[in-house]
Amino acid sequence: MDTGGAYNPRTVEEVFRDFKGRRAGMIKALTSDVHEFYRLCDPEKENLCLYGHPNENWEVNLPAEEVPPELPEPVLGINFARDGMQEKDWLSLVAVHSDAWLLAVAFFFGARFGFDKADRKRLFNMVNELPTIFEVVAGTAKKQSKDKSSVSNNSSNRSKSNSKRGSESRAKYLKAEEPEEEEEEEGVEEEDEDEQGETQCGACGESYAADEFWICCDLCEMWFHGKCVKITPARAEHIKQYKCPSCSNKRARS
Fold first, then answer.
1. Among 23, 58, 194, 240, which residue's Cβ finds the most Cβ atoms within 10 Å?
2. How far apart are the C-alpha atoms of 177 and 196, rounded to whole Å?
3. What share of the chain in percent tops pLDDT 90?
């Protein structure tokens, strides 16, 4: 099993960065790359594991041969349950085990490099700010984000969305705002930035940043980083109705 190169994070920030990278890779496997992940989890093969790497890639492979392994190992045999369960339930099960593995790896590094009580608490709080993989896969992360945004009134939400969408594709995707703005609009911009900061990506759970490309699903109306759903600004120009991976999978299964 390729562990993504010799990499030993030693500080709280480095361990959290490692956690985020592995988490992003596993979320890709269970959402945007789910068809490839499903294909690789062949029940006819030996015990397989889902690995997330710090570089945001994922891998389905046999467990490490070393005993004890260099890092904690993910759950074994995810492929054996694939055909015996509903796909949604199977993906949720893999997601729960993936969350447990990510925490095991993060706190393995913490123990290895002597994190004290304050460091362990800070690491957990940083991790806890992100939705779990299970919440992303099951869609509860989207619901939590929607509940947050519903506190603001609909008109302010609409103005926020409009301010973030390009003029040519107003209902489809979001571009980073241009820096040249009139001074008289500064007060409005500050309000918009506050509201945009509350918007979370439906895939990775991270907050909106003005220098990133985002796209909105026309069905569930959730926002996503373009990189999380593999959509570029150029590609978005030609999409009449964008459907996120979750909505696409639901329609395919129905």
1. 23
2. 11
3. 46
Q: What gap in Å lies between CA 128 and CA 111, rounded to an integer?
A: 19
pLDDT on residue 143: 63
Each residue's pLDDT tens digit, 100-146 = 999 999 999 999 999 999 999 999 999 999 999 999 999 886 666 56
Q: CA angle at residue 106 from 105 to 110, to 5 degrees? A: 115
| Domain extents in the chain | 12-138, 201-253
User: Which whole-number Å values give the CA distances from 237 to 61, 103, 157, 166, 169, in the listed order?
Assistant: 37, 39, 23, 10, 7
- Name the CATH superfamily, with its identifier, for domain 201-253: Zinc/RING finger domain, C3HC4 (zinc finger) (3.30.40.10)
Q: Which residues are registered as beta bridge partners of 49?
A: 61
Is the CB of residue 53 less than 8 Å from the CB of residue 97?
no
Tokens of 77: 């045999």
Give the amino acid at 78. I
Residue 39 above 90 pLDDT?
Answer: yes
Write the pLDDT tens digit of every residue in 46-86.
999 999 999 999 999 999 888 888 899 999 999 999 999 99
Contact 97, 110 (CB under 8 A): no
DSSP output for 68-92: S-SSPPPPS-GGGGGGGS-HHHHHH
Identify the bridge partners of residue 34 per DSSP, sorted by sequence position.
none
